Structure of Diaminopimelate epimerase:
Amino acid sequence: MNGLGNDFLVFDARRDPVRLTADEILRLADRKTGIGFDQMITLEPSGAGADAFMRIHNADSSEVSACGNATRCVGWLLMQEKDSAAATIETRAGLLYASDAGEPELITVDMGEPKFDWRDIPLAEEFHDTRAIELQIGPIDAPILHSPAVVNMGNPHAIFWVDDVEAYDLAKLGPMLEHHPIFPERANISLAQVTGPDSLILKVWERGAGLTRACGTGACAAAVAAARTRRTGRRVRVTLPGGDLVITWRESDNHVMMTGPVETDFTGTIDRDTLAVTLDPPASVRGAAE
Ligand SMILES: N[C@@H](CCC[C@H](N)C(=O)O)C(=O)O
Protein backbone atom coordinates (compact mmCIF):
# COMPACT_ATOMS: atom_id res chain seq x y z
CA MET A 1 0.00 0.00 0.00
CA ASN A 2 1.05 3.61 -0.13
CA GLY A 3 0.06 6.97 1.27
CA LEU A 4 1.26 9.71 -1.09
CA GLY A 5 3.99 7.39 -2.37
CA ASN A 6 5.30 6.54 1.13
CA ASP A 7 5.11 2.79 0.53
CA PHE A 8 4.45 -0.17 2.78
CA LEU A 9 4.55 -3.93 2.80
CA VAL A 10 1.57 -4.85 5.00
CA PHE A 11 1.44 -8.34 6.52
CA ASP A 12 -1.78 -9.67 7.97
CA ALA A 13 -0.47 -11.62 10.94
CA ARG A 14 -3.65 -11.58 12.98
CA ARG A 15 -4.19 -15.33 12.71
CA ASP A 16 -0.70 -16.65 11.95
CA PRO A 17 2.24 -14.79 13.51
CA VAL A 18 4.82 -13.30 11.13
CA ARG A 19 8.22 -12.86 12.78
CA LEU A 20 11.01 -11.98 10.38
CA THR A 21 14.67 -11.61 11.22
CA ALA A 22 16.42 -8.29 10.57
CA ASP A 23 18.17 -9.91 7.63
CA GLU A 24 14.85 -11.06 6.11
CA ILE A 25 13.36 -7.56 6.50
CA LEU A 26 16.40 -6.10 4.74
CA ARG A 27 16.03 -8.63 1.91
CA LEU A 28 12.34 -7.80 1.41
CA ALA A 29 13.05 -4.05 1.65
CA ASP A 30 15.61 -4.17 -1.15
CA ARG A 31 14.04 -2.40 -4.15
CA LYS A 32 16.18 -4.32 -6.66
CA THR A 33 16.06 -7.88 -5.35
CA GLY A 34 13.15 -7.85 -2.88
CA ILE A 35 9.78 -6.07 -2.94
CA GLY A 36 10.96 -2.68 -1.71
CA PHE A 37 9.24 -0.46 0.86
CA ASP A 38 9.81 2.46 3.19
CA GLN A 39 8.15 0.65 6.10
CA MET A 40 7.01 -2.91 6.80
CA ILE A 41 3.73 -3.11 8.70
CA THR A 42 2.62 -6.23 10.56
CA LEU A 43 -0.99 -6.41 11.70
CA GLU A 44 -1.34 -8.45 14.89
CA PRO A 45 -4.18 -9.07 17.35
CA SER A 46 -4.64 -6.11 19.69
CA GLY A 47 -4.25 -6.62 23.41
CA ALA A 48 -6.00 -3.31 24.06
CA GLY A 49 -9.36 -3.92 22.42
CA ALA A 50 -8.45 -2.08 19.19
CA ASP A 51 -9.26 -3.53 15.76
CA ALA A 52 -5.59 -4.49 15.34
CA PHE A 53 -2.10 -3.85 16.65
CA MET A 54 0.16 -2.29 14.03
CA ARG A 55 3.88 -3.16 14.28
CA ILE A 56 6.18 -0.88 12.28
CA HIS A 57 9.65 -1.61 10.93
CA ASN A 58 11.66 0.84 8.86
CA ALA A 59 13.40 -0.38 5.69
CA ASP A 60 16.64 -0.66 7.71
CA SER A 61 14.78 -3.20 9.95
CA SER A 62 14.59 -0.92 13.03
CA GLU A 63 11.29 -1.19 14.88
CA VAL A 64 9.60 2.17 15.59
CA SER A 65 6.45 3.43 17.28
CA ALA A 66 4.65 5.64 14.78
CA CYS A 67 3.93 5.99 11.08
CA GLY A 68 1.21 8.42 10.01
CA ASN A 69 0.78 7.37 6.38
CA ALA A 70 0.66 3.67 7.29
CA THR A 71 -1.92 4.38 9.99
CA ARG A 72 -4.22 5.80 7.31
CA CYS A 73 -3.64 2.73 5.10
CA VAL A 74 -4.27 0.29 7.94
CA GLY A 75 -7.28 2.32 9.09
CA TRP A 76 -8.75 2.06 5.60
CA LEU A 77 -8.11 -1.72 5.45
CA LEU A 78 -9.80 -2.29 8.81
CA MET A 79 -12.76 -0.06 7.88
CA GLN A 80 -13.25 -1.99 4.63
CA GLU A 81 -13.14 -5.24 6.53
CA LYS A 82 -15.66 -4.08 9.17
CA ASP A 83 -17.74 -2.18 6.65
CA SER A 84 -17.56 0.73 9.06
CA ALA A 85 -16.58 4.42 8.87
CA ALA A 86 -14.09 4.18 11.74
CA ALA A 87 -11.36 1.91 13.12
CA THR A 88 -9.08 1.84 16.16
CA ILE A 89 -5.42 0.93 15.78
CA GLU A 90 -3.08 0.04 18.60
CA THR A 91 0.56 1.11 18.15
CA ARG A 92 3.58 1.26 20.44
CA ALA A 93 2.79 4.99 20.72
CA GLY A 94 -0.80 4.36 21.92
CA LEU A 95 -4.26 3.97 20.42
CA LEU A 96 -5.00 5.86 17.20
CA TYR A 97 -8.42 6.47 15.64
CA ALA A 98 -8.98 6.45 11.88
CA SER A 99 -12.15 7.60 10.17
CA ASP A 100 -13.60 8.06 6.75
CA ALA A 101 -12.93 11.65 5.57
CA GLY A 102 -16.03 11.72 3.38
CA GLU A 103 -14.37 11.02 0.01
CA PRO A 104 -13.36 7.63 -1.42
CA GLU A 105 -10.00 6.51 -0.08
CA LEU A 106 -9.46 9.72 1.90
CA ILE A 107 -8.85 8.95 5.57
CA THR A 108 -8.46 11.06 8.71
CA VAL A 109 -6.35 9.83 11.61
CA ASP A 110 -6.26 11.29 15.10
CA MET A 111 -2.50 11.17 15.70
CA GLY A 112 -2.80 12.14 19.38
CA GLU A 113 -0.90 14.83 21.22
CA PRO A 114 2.54 16.13 20.24
CA LYS A 115 5.29 16.13 22.88
CA PHE A 116 7.82 18.93 23.28
CA ASP A 117 9.80 18.13 26.41
CA TRP A 118 13.48 17.46 25.54
CA ARG A 119 13.30 14.13 27.43
CA ASP A 120 10.36 13.00 25.28
CA ILE A 121 11.88 13.87 21.89
CA PRO A 122 14.37 12.47 23.10
CA LEU A 123 17.42 14.77 23.10
CA ALA A 124 20.78 13.90 24.63
CA GLU A 125 20.95 17.16 26.61
CA GLU A 126 18.57 19.52 28.31
CA PHE A 127 16.84 22.22 26.26
CA HIS A 128 14.12 24.34 27.85
CA ASP A 129 12.74 25.68 24.61
CA THR A 130 12.36 23.04 21.91
CA ARG A 131 10.88 25.53 19.41
CA ALA A 132 14.48 26.11 18.27
CA ILE A 133 17.48 24.21 19.60
CA GLU A 134 21.06 25.19 18.89
CA LEU A 135 22.92 22.43 17.13
CA GLN A 136 26.64 22.19 16.57
CA ILE A 137 26.96 20.92 13.02
CA GLY A 138 30.54 20.81 11.81
CA PRO A 139 30.76 20.79 8.05
CA ILE A 140 27.39 22.30 7.07
CA ASP A 141 27.93 25.85 5.92
CA ALA A 142 24.33 27.05 6.27
CA PRO A 143 23.49 28.88 9.52
CA ILE A 144 19.76 28.31 9.01
CA LEU A 145 20.38 24.58 9.44
CA HIS A 146 21.57 25.06 13.01
CA SER A 147 18.32 25.74 14.94
CA PRO A 148 15.65 23.14 14.25
CA ALA A 149 12.36 22.82 16.09
CA VAL A 150 11.97 19.37 17.63
CA VAL A 151 8.71 17.52 18.17
CA ASN A 152 7.79 13.97 19.14
CA MET A 153 4.71 12.66 17.28
CA GLY A 154 5.17 9.12 18.62
CA ASN A 155 8.61 9.37 16.96
CA PRO A 156 11.36 12.02 16.94
CA HIS A 157 11.32 14.84 14.41
CA ALA A 158 13.62 17.80 13.77
CA ILE A 159 12.30 20.55 11.51
CA PHE A 160 14.66 23.00 9.84
CA TRP A 161 13.01 26.17 8.48
CA VAL A 162 14.31 27.19 5.07
CA ASP A 163 13.32 29.72 2.41
CA ASP A 164 13.48 27.15 -0.37
CA VAL A 165 13.42 23.40 0.24
CA GLU A 166 14.99 22.88 -3.19
CA ALA A 167 18.10 24.87 -2.25
CA TYR A 168 19.41 22.06 -0.01
CA ASP A 169 20.59 18.55 -0.78
CA LEU A 170 18.60 16.61 1.84
CA ALA A 171 19.97 13.29 0.57
CA LYS A 172 23.39 14.54 1.65
CA LEU A 173 22.42 16.39 4.84
CA GLY A 174 19.83 13.86 6.04
CA PRO A 175 22.12 10.99 7.11
CA MET A 176 24.41 13.32 9.05
CA LEU A 177 21.53 15.07 10.85
CA GLU A 178 19.63 11.81 11.51
CA HIS A 179 22.70 10.47 13.35
CA HIS A 180 23.62 13.73 15.16
CA PRO A 181 24.68 12.92 18.76
CA ILE A 182 21.93 15.21 20.12
CA PHE A 183 19.41 12.55 18.98
CA PRO A 184 20.11 9.39 21.04
CA GLU A 185 17.38 7.48 19.13
CA ARG A 186 18.25 9.19 15.83
CA ALA A 187 15.58 11.48 14.27
CA ASN A 188 13.46 12.10 11.20
CA ILE A 189 14.79 15.23 9.51
CA SER A 190 12.58 17.74 7.68
CA LEU A 191 13.19 20.83 5.63
CA ALA A 192 10.11 23.06 5.87
CA GLN A 193 9.24 26.12 3.79
CA VAL A 194 6.34 28.31 4.91
CA THR A 195 4.37 29.41 1.85
CA GLY A 196 1.44 31.12 3.59
CA PRO A 197 -0.50 31.30 6.87
CA ASP A 198 -2.03 27.90 6.11
CA SER A 199 0.51 26.17 3.88
CA LEU A 200 3.91 24.52 4.04
CA ILE A 201 6.19 22.68 1.65
CA LEU A 202 8.00 19.79 3.28
CA LYS A 203 10.75 17.33 2.41
CA VAL A 204 11.61 14.55 4.83
CA TRP A 205 14.65 12.39 5.33
CA GLU A 206 13.18 9.54 7.35
CA ARG A 207 15.09 7.80 10.09
CA GLY A 208 15.77 4.26 8.89
CA ALA A 209 14.27 4.79 5.44
CA GLY A 210 15.97 7.82 3.83
CA LEU A 211 14.25 10.28 1.50
CA THR A 212 10.58 9.36 1.15
CA ARG A 213 7.85 10.85 -1.00
CA ALA A 214 5.82 11.70 2.12
CA CYS A 215 5.95 11.32 5.89
CA GLY A 216 2.70 11.64 7.85
CA THR A 217 4.20 12.13 11.29
CA GLY A 218 6.70 14.54 9.69
CA ALA A 219 3.83 16.61 8.28
CA CYS A 220 2.13 16.61 11.73
CA ALA A 221 5.38 17.60 13.48
CA ALA A 222 6.09 20.42 11.00
CA ALA A 223 2.52 21.75 11.21
CA VAL A 224 2.65 21.78 15.01
CA ALA A 225 6.11 23.39 15.04
CA ALA A 226 4.91 26.06 12.58
CA ALA A 227 1.82 26.88 14.64
CA ARG A 228 3.85 26.88 17.86
CA THR A 229 6.15 29.56 16.48
CA ARG A 230 3.29 31.53 14.86
CA ARG A 231 4.61 30.86 11.39
CA THR A 232 1.15 29.51 10.45
CA GLY A 233 -2.26 28.91 11.98
CA ARG A 234 -3.33 25.55 13.42
CA ARG A 235 -4.74 24.17 10.16
CA VAL A 236 -2.29 23.78 7.27
CA ARG A 237 -1.97 22.06 3.94
CA VAL A 238 1.42 20.35 3.82
CA THR A 239 2.75 19.73 0.33
CA LEU A 240 5.19 16.83 0.12
CA PRO A 241 6.88 15.40 -3.00
CA GLY A 242 4.08 12.77 -3.18
CA GLY A 243 1.16 15.16 -2.66
CA ASP A 244 -0.76 17.01 0.05
CA LEU A 245 -1.86 16.26 3.61
CA VAL A 246 -4.17 18.48 5.63
CA ILE A 247 -3.11 18.79 9.26
CA THR A 248 -5.19 20.35 12.02
CA TRP A 249 -3.81 20.84 15.52
CA ARG A 250 -7.01 20.99 17.58
CA GLU A 251 -7.15 23.62 20.28
CA SER A 252 -9.91 21.78 22.19
CA ASP A 253 -7.88 18.67 23.12
CA ASN A 254 -4.37 19.31 21.73
CA HIS A 255 -4.75 16.38 19.28
CA VAL A 256 -3.28 16.45 15.77
CA MET A 257 -5.60 15.34 12.97
CA MET A 258 -4.16 14.24 9.62
CA THR A 259 -6.20 13.76 6.44
CA GLY A 260 -4.86 12.23 3.24
CA PRO A 261 -5.25 9.46 0.66
CA VAL A 262 -4.49 5.74 0.73
CA GLU A 263 -3.85 3.29 -2.10
CA THR A 264 -3.50 -0.47 -2.43
CA ASP A 265 -0.85 -1.30 -5.04
CA PHE A 266 -1.06 -5.10 -5.11
CA THR A 267 -1.74 -8.09 -2.87
CA GLY A 268 -0.06 -11.47 -2.71
CA THR A 269 1.65 -14.12 -0.64
CA ILE A 270 5.25 -14.49 0.52
CA ASP A 271 6.75 -17.93 1.05
CA ARG A 272 7.96 -18.16 4.65
CA ASP A 273 11.13 -20.10 3.81
CA THR A 274 12.29 -18.66 0.51
CA LEU A 275 10.62 -15.20 0.72
CA ALA A 276 9.48 -15.76 -2.87
CA VAL A 277 6.52 -13.53 -3.74
CA THR A 278 3.37 -14.66 -5.54
CA LEU A 279 1.18 -11.75 -6.60
CA ASP A 280 -2.60 -12.04 -6.77
CA PRO A 281 -4.00 -11.21 -10.20
CA PRO A 282 -5.31 -7.61 -10.36
CA ALA A 283 -9.00 -7.27 -9.38
CA SER A 284 -9.92 -6.48 -13.04
CA VAL A 285 -8.46 -9.83 -14.20
CA ARG A 286 -10.13 -11.70 -11.33
CA GLY A 287 -13.44 -10.03 -12.22
CA ALA A 288 -13.15 -11.05 -15.91
CA ALA A 289 -12.45 -14.69 -15.00
CA GLU A 290 -15.51 -15.00 -12.74
N1 LIG B 1 6.58 7.16 7.05
C1 LIG B 1 6.27 7.54 8.33
C2 LIG B 1 7.22 7.47 9.46
C3 LIG B 1 7.87 6.10 9.61
C4 LIG B 1 8.77 5.96 10.81
C5 LIG B 1 9.97 6.86 10.79
N2 LIG B 1 10.86 6.63 9.69
C6 LIG B 1 10.73 6.73 12.12
O1 LIG B 1 11.77 6.06 12.17
O2 LIG B 1 10.28 7.30 13.11
C7 LIG B 1 5.05 8.42 8.48
O3 LIG B 1 4.25 8.49 7.54
O4 LIG B 1 4.86 8.99 9.56
Summary: Residues 6, 38-39, 58, 64, 67-69, 155, 188, 206-209, 212, 215-217 surround LBFN2T5F (CB under 6 Å). Residues 2-112+263-289 form a domain with the Diaminopimelate Epimerase; Chain A, domain 1 fold (CATH 3.10.310.10). The chain has two domains: 2-112+263-289, 143-251. The two ends are 25 Å apart (CA to CA).
